[in-house]
Amino acid sequence: MSLTTCSIIITQQSEKVITISRSLSKALQINTARPIILKLGNKSVSAHVKLWNREGHVMSIPHVLSSSIYLPASGKCMVKSSNGREIQLGPLIGVLAGPASNSAVLPFGGRTGFIREFMQAGANKAYYFAFAANHVDWNREVVTGYFLDANGKWIRRTVPLPDVVYNRLPSRRAENSAAMSAFKTKFVNRKIPLFNWSFFDKYDIYRLLDGEQEASKHVPESINNPKADEIRRMMEKHRFVYLKPDAGSLGIGIYRLTYTPNRGYFARFRRNGINVLIRFPRFDGLFKMLQRHNLKLQYYVLQQGVRLIELENCPIDFRFHLTKNGSNQWVASGIGAKKAGKGSVTTHVRSGGMLMMPEQVLKSVFGSRGDQVLENAKNVAIRLAEAIERNYPHTLGELGFDLGIDQNERVWMFEANAKPGRSIFKLPSLKAQGRTSLVNLFEHCQYLSRFRPRREG
């Protein structure tokens, strides 16, 4: 396969002839003696080719031809040819972003900024657009999506079905609907890669890792839909445990339950923006409080507590943002340390937590061994991602892990997220890692859409 970048110019000439520079013709090994097939997504058109004495890789396409393949605009993208008789433009990357508004500035609300950043990561190498389910016309196999024009403004254009779909649907409820599952399956049935199929529930991940001997040793003991006697037994065994909503996020609804012999049972949680701590002399009192809070335990996971490393008596955990790269390998694109707020159940910033650099934290705790501890945690995160991928039925391209490290340097995995947030990249010293994560995602889109060399097998 011949593959390169190219400048595309859409003209108003009436002649149905594609003009390409000699250097581009040579790079793609084009046979100009016969018509070629020009493709974008699943649309194609046949046309004659003329050579052009112009420097660089340039292709001129008359509007009468570009419109037949729904080419959205002039610009730069990748171009490939496998046999010299067919030219494929692309990749055409679709971001499934959820319902759009009428706003010209923020068509996808608070998600718009991230979508814009992702598109800029592969600028001049692809055609990017964002879309919602109702923007797809399956009969015509086209999508009317949102593109960024040369001035950075959002415009709508109709294009073929994409070469690859990056799923960033924001609603867990909508995504779990039968209609949305059927919608996504239509892409897969057309052999269009779609990655990050859906949100994970916490216990789903623990179940996926059940048969993975190496990976499962990093998962704390966990029980789905716990009963009262299981909560008591786990508290007495581990001294403290966490009750977490199975489909929760952002630390909302989490309880830390502690048992101290001769002192009783303690519950720590956050309510109305305040960190709360209550002591109970007997377990029955604690469990009745949970009942008063209307906890539906069938939707909760009970998890062993782990004594994590601390700074200033505050626990520290780590967010590992993993992405696939252009070689289809997992890499740790970004790592942030999170220090819990005083009296907080979790390390989330909204609960008083603080973002820090992992190197700074691990050096404070482990001294000169800090770098080695961090490298080991990276390797664990990658092995966990590979184990989840082996057991997950859909394509993955991005994962977020909440990991902890104890005083014995053992790494623990508390949660995995298929649509990780990007809050760690707000830390100024992590902004470069944030950009790297987006470049990795773009290059993985190139890989999935076969606009990047790959080794098969």
Q: Give the low-pLDDT segments.
A: none
Biggest sheet: strands, sense, closure? Answer: 7 strands, mixed, barrel
Task: Please give the share of residues in helix.
Answer: 25-40%
CATH homologous superfamily designation of the largest domain: ATP-grasp fold, B domain
Strand content range: 25-35%
- Total strand segments: 26
Number of helical runs? 12
CATH topology-level name of the largest domain? D-amino Acid Aminotransferase, Chain A, domain 1
Q: Name the CATH architecture of the largest domain.
A: 2-Layer Sandwich
**Strands across the major sheet, in which order?**
1-5-2-4-3-7-6
Instruction: Kindly name the structural category.
Output: alpha+beta
Rounded average pLDDT: 92
Walk me through what this model shows:
This protein has 457 residues and is an alpha+beta fold. 26% of the residues lie in helices and 34% in strands. The protein contains twelve helices and 26 strands. It has helices at 22-28, 63-66, 112-121, 172-175, 178-189, 202-208, 213-216, 228-238, 283-292, 358-366, 370-391, 431-448, and strands at residues 2-11, 17-21, 36-40, 43-52, 58-62, 75-81, 86-90, 92-96, 127-131, 136-137, 142-148, 154-160, 164-167, 194-195, 222-224, 240-245, 255-260, 264-271, 274-280, 300-304, 310-311, 314-324, 330-339, 354-356, 398-405, 411-417. A seven-stranded mixed barrel has the order 1-5-2-4-3-7-6. It has a six-stranded antiparallel sheet with strand order 15-20-16-17-18-19, with helices on both faces. Strands 21, 22, 23, 24, 25 and 26 form a six-stranded antiparallel sheet that branches. Helix 3 (112-121) packs across helix 12 and helix 10 (358-366) crosses helix 11 (370-391). The radius of gyration is 26 Å and the shape is elongated. This is YheC/YheD family protein.
